[in-house]
Structure formats: structure tokens, C-alpha cells
Backbone:
């Protein structure tokens, strides 16, 4: 039941993005990083927030880290496999902006998890990094091919 509700929520979200992009100055990158990245992961985000409120910051950060691993190791290979049998136009071409944002994020997360401990300062540092990346994507121009 939860899977069907999340599929319906994701379908409604992606259906209403095109009018937003057509009638506003919001970058396609910004919509992809905020709305499209967060909607399918809402249950994990709520669990991470609950763990943080219970003073279990390490588990909260691990939940967030596992979301990224899930997307990289399961969802993207499945999309590529699906695209080989039914062409939906899924292409893995990354701009310099995506490449440097990914490298920067991996370096910061590795630095945070290097000592095996976490505290509110490190969690706040990750939130600040996310806000910086959001500002970067908000002001980035949309690619001409999209």
C-alpha cells in the first residue's frame, strides 16, 4: 500500500513539474535536486529526522548516506537496464556542475565520517553544504538541450 501511495505521489510530482518550469525562472537543476530527489525518499528523511530528535545523530546520518548509496547502486543501474529494452531517453551525461558538486559532496561526507563519531556540528555542516549546493543549482542556467 505504501509503495502504491509513493508511486502515485512521485507520478503527480513529475506530472506537474513541466508547467512550473515553463512559467517561472526556476532552473531545471534546482527542481531536480530538490523536488525530484526528495519526493521518493520522504520516508527515509522522516526516519532520519526522528533519529536525530532522539539524539541518535550517527544513525540519522547513516540513513541519509544510505539513501545516496541506494540511488547509485540500485536505482540508476535499473534505469539503465530498463532504458536498453525500452528507450525512454535516459542518458548519463553529466555537466561540470554535476561532476564538481558530486566530488565536493563525497569529500565532505568522507571527512565527516572519517573519525567514526558525529555530533550536531557535523550535522549542521552537512546542512550548510546542502544549502550551498542548492544555491549553486538555483542560479545555474538550464542546459540548452533540455
Residues:
Amino acid at each position: 500500500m505504501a509503495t502504491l501511495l509513493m508511486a502515485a505521489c512521485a507520478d503527480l510530482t513529475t506530472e506537474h513539474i513541466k508547467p512550473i518550469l515553463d512559467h517561472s525562472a526556476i532552473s531545471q537543476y534546482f527542481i531536480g535536486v530538490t523536488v525530484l530527489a526528495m519526493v521518493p525518499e520522504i520516508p527515509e528523511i522522516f526516519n532520519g529526522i526522528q533519529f536525530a530528535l532522539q539524539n541518535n545523530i550517527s544513525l540519522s546520518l547513516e540513513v541519509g548516506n544510505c539513501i545516496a548509496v541506494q540511488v547509485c547502486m540500485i536505482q540508476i543501474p535499473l534505469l539503465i537496464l530498463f532504458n536498453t529494452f525500452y528507450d525512454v531517453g535516459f542518458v548519463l551525461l553529466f555537466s561540470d556542475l554535476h561532476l564538481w558538486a558530486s566530488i565536493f559532496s563525497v569529500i565532505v561526507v568522507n571527512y565527516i565520517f572519517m573519525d567514526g563519531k558525529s555530533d550536531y556540528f557535523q550535522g549542521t555542516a552537512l546542512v550548510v553544504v546542502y544549502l550551498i549546493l542548492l544555491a549553486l543549482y538555483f542560479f545555474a542556467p538550464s542546459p540548452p538541450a533540455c
The two ends are 34 Å apart (CA to CA). The longest helix spans residues 57-85. The chain is about 75% helix and 0% strand. The mean pLDDT is 79.
